[in-house]
Amino acid sequence: MIKATIFDFGGVVLDFPPTGIENFVSNSLNISMDLVKKTLFPTGGELIEGKVLENTFWENYAHLVQRVLPSDWEEQLREFFSKNAHVNSRVIQIAQALKEKGFLLPLLSNISPFQVKIFKNLNYFIPFDPLLFSCEIGFKKPDPRIFEFLLEKMDLEPQECLFIDDDEQNVNAANNLGLNGIQFQSVQKLICDLAPFFAFDLSPKK
Predict the structure, then answer these.
(1) What Rg do the C-alpha atoms of the chain give, in angstroms?
(2) Is the separation of the CB atoms in 2 and 100 below 8 Å?
(3) What pLDDT does residue 96 have?
C-alpha cells in the first residue's frame, strides 16, 4: 500500500529553463557556454551536498575559469532565480490532492543552501513536508544513501513509496532500492502514471 508520494523539486514542482543557470553564468562571467558546461556541473556536487559554502564555491569557480566574481553576485543570483523559476501550479494541485487524502508528501531535492533560502522566501515548498535537501543531508540523488535516509527518517518501506523525478538516473536509483519510481515528463503523463496506484481522480481542476 502506498503511504508516501515523494516529489523532486527542480523539473517537477519547479519550472525552470533547462540551460538557465548555464546561460546566466556564461553571460554574467563573460565565458563561453562550452566552458560553462565543461566546468560548472562537474564542480557543483560539493555545493549541493553542503560540503562547501556558497560564496566559497562561486569564488573558486570564478578562479577556475579565470574571472573575478562581481561584487553583487549574490544579488544577481537571487534576481535570476526569482525571475526565471516558477512553480508548476498543476503539479501543486496534484500534490495538494494527495495530501488531502492523507498521503505523506516529502520533497527530495538536489539543491544548494542559497536556493533553499530563495525558494522558502517565495513559499515554493508548500504543501510539501518534510523538506529533504541534499545540502542538508550530505548526499545527492542518485546516491542510494539519500533514499535510505528518507526511508529511515519517515519509517517507510520502499514499496510504500512513489518517487517522482524528471531525471531518469534518479528514477532508476529509486527503482533499484524497491521504490516505485516515475519519470516526470508532463502533467498529463504523470496523471496517467499515478492512476494505477490511486482509486481517485488526480486530474487538476481548471
Answers:
(1) 18
(2) no
(3) 95
Q: Mean pLDDT in the chain?
A: 93
Task: Say whether pLDDT at 205 is over 80.
Answer: no
- The closest of 19, 21, 10, 28 to 86, measured between CA atoms, is 10
pTM above 0.85, yes or no: yes
Q: Give mean pLDDT, residues 156-178.
A: 97
Residue 168: φ, ψ to 5°: -60, -40
The DSSP letter of residue 68 is: P
The burial class, CB within 10 Å (0-12 / 13-18 / 19+), for 168 is exposed
Give the pLDDT confidence score for residue 75 in this predicted structure: 93
Range of lowest pLDDT (41-55, 107-121, 163-177, 183-197) = 41-55
Positive or negative, the CA dihedral 48, 121, 119, 61 is negative
Give the bridge partners for 87, in sequence order.
Answer: 14
Residue 86 CA to residue 59 CA, distance in Å, equals 27
Local structure of residue 196 (DSSP, 8 states)? G
Sign of CA dihedral 81, 83, 85, 91: positive
Number of residues that make up the chain = 206
By the 8 A CB rule, do 67 and 29 touch?
Answer: yes
Grid cell listed for 188: 498529463
